[in-house]
Amino acid sequence: MTVVIGFEGSANKIGIGIIRDGEVLSNPRRTYITPPGQGFLPSETARHHRAVILTVLQEALEQAGLKPADVDCVAYTKGPGMGAPLVTVALVARTVAQLWGKPLLGVNHCIGHIEMGRLITHADNPTVLYVSGGNTQVIAYSERRYRIFGETIDIAVGNCLDRFARVIKISNDPSPGYNIEQMAKKGSQYVELPYTVKGMDVSFSGILSYIEETLFSMLVEITERAMAHCGSQEVLIVGGVGCNLRLQEMMGVMCKERGAKLFATDERFCIDNGAMIAQAGWEMFRSGHVTELPDSWITQR
């Protein structure tokens, strides 16, 4: 049995999770929350992560009932993400790997989301809609690698929602997107907005003034196009925005019309977490991958 511990801290979440052969043994997490109207700056976010990361590490080991000797590999988010938070987590992961005498493994953040979604939902070979604060992509596995079939050409959908929340001073606790969703549930009027789909790509920067329904319609359209291109009958929604029940509902209607299946996870696993890095690390480690110390850098892109 292979045990992998994963360190995630690419944005305002710091999480450490432990996976043992597909079983989530622990997955504690902390969130850096700023006042309404403010975003989170890299330096301040990194300071938050430094203050809590060892506590989260202790919680992960205790909840899993494991000791360092029981761990086979240390995985960490190599990128993409915010530079200062990524460096903070990478430093701790590198130190832990050396102290414990374990191999180190740098993981792509996006792949972590996908592999966690596949583990939890048991989706076989889905067309993936990856929607978060920093990323908006339609992805499918083809010819031995994940390939991007469509993406935003400007800002990510989560960033669009976050910026809208800042403009009208919506609370960041627990997250701007969640609070927008709760407010939208009380709405009854649809406001027509610019609908900007360009082939397989989307543009969100011009519709910051209004938001949710139109954004999600665009995402459903480009996901359906990717499904047709790939001949896929499964959709998996991952990333923090994937928690949105209205997005899931709209995607579900499209899937039903095509006779396809929709897969999604809840906030435990769609929001950035350590277990997703551990799971992707588990898959990579079992395939013979390791990251040598001189190669254990990070990348924001």
From TrEMBL:
<comment type="similarity">
    <text>Belongs to the KAE1 / TsaD family.</text>
</comment>
<keyword id="KW-0963">Cytoplasm</keyword>
<dbReference type="InterPro" id="IPR000905">
    <property type="entry name" value="Gcp-like_dom"/>
</dbReference>
<dbReference type="InterPro" id="IPR017861">
    <property type="entry name" value="KAE1/TsaD"/>
</dbReference>
<dbReference type="GO" id="GO:0061711">
    <property type="term" value="F:tRNA N(6)-L-threonylcarbamoyladenine synthase activity"/>
</dbReference>
<keyword id="KW-0539">Nucleus</keyword>
<feature type="binding site">
    <location>
        <position position="177"/>
    </location>
    <ligand>
        <name>substrate</name>
    </ligand>
</feature>
<protein>
    <recommendedName>
        <fullName>N(6)-L-threonylcarbamoyladenine synthase</fullName>
        <ecNumber>2.3.1.234</ecNumber>
    </recommendedName>
</protein>
<dbReference type="GO" id="GO:0002949">
    <property type="term" value="P:tRNA threonylcarbamoyladenosine modification"/>
</dbReference>
<dbReference type="InterPro" id="IPR034680">
    <property type="entry name" value="Kae1_archaea_euk"/>
</dbReference>
<keyword id="KW-0479">Metal-binding</keyword>
<feature type="binding site">
    <location>
        <position position="130"/>
    </location>
    <ligand>
        <name>a divalent metal cation</name>
    </ligand>
</feature>
<dbReference type="GO" id="GO:0005634">
    <property type="term" value="C:nucleus"/>
</dbReference>
<feature type="binding site">
    <location>
        <position position="272"/>
    </location>
    <ligand>
        <name>a divalent metal cation</name>
    </ligand>
</feature>
<feature type="binding site">
    <location>
        <position position="109"/>
    </location>
    <ligand>
        <name>a divalent metal cation</name>
    </ligand>
</feature>
<keyword id="KW-0012">Acyltransferase</keyword>
<dbReference type="Pfam" id="PF00814">
    <property type="entry name" value="TsaD"/>
</dbReference>
<dbReference type="GO" id="GO:0000408">
    <property type="term" value="C:EKC/KEOPS complex"/>
</dbReference>
<dbReference type="GO" id="GO:0046872">
    <property type="term" value="F:metal ion binding"/>
</dbReference>
<keyword id="KW-0819">tRNA processing</keyword>
<feature type="binding site">
    <location>
        <position position="162"/>
    </location>
    <ligand>
        <name>substrate</name>
    </ligand>
</feature>
<feature type="binding site">
    <location>
        <position position="181"/>
    </location>
    <ligand>
        <name>substrate</name>
    </ligand>
</feature>
<feature type="binding site">
    <location>
        <position position="244"/>
    </location>
    <ligand>
        <name>substrate</name>
    </ligand>
</feature>
<dbReference type="GO" id="GO:0005737">
    <property type="term" value="C:cytoplasm"/>
</dbReference>
<dbReference type="InterPro" id="IPR017860">
    <property type="entry name" value="Peptidase_M22_CS"/>
</dbReference>
<feature type="binding site">
    <location>
        <begin position="130"/>
        <end position="134"/>
    </location>
    <ligand>
        <name>substrate</name>
    </ligand>
</feature>
<feature type="binding site">
    <location>
        <position position="113"/>
    </location>
    <ligand>
        <name>a divalent metal cation</name>
    </ligand>
</feature>
<keyword id="KW-0808">Transferase</keyword>
<dbReference type="InterPro" id="IPR043129">
    <property type="entry name" value="ATPase_NBD"/>
</dbReference>
<feature type="domain" description="Gcp-like">
    <location>
        <begin position="29"/>
        <end position="278"/>
    </location>
</feature>
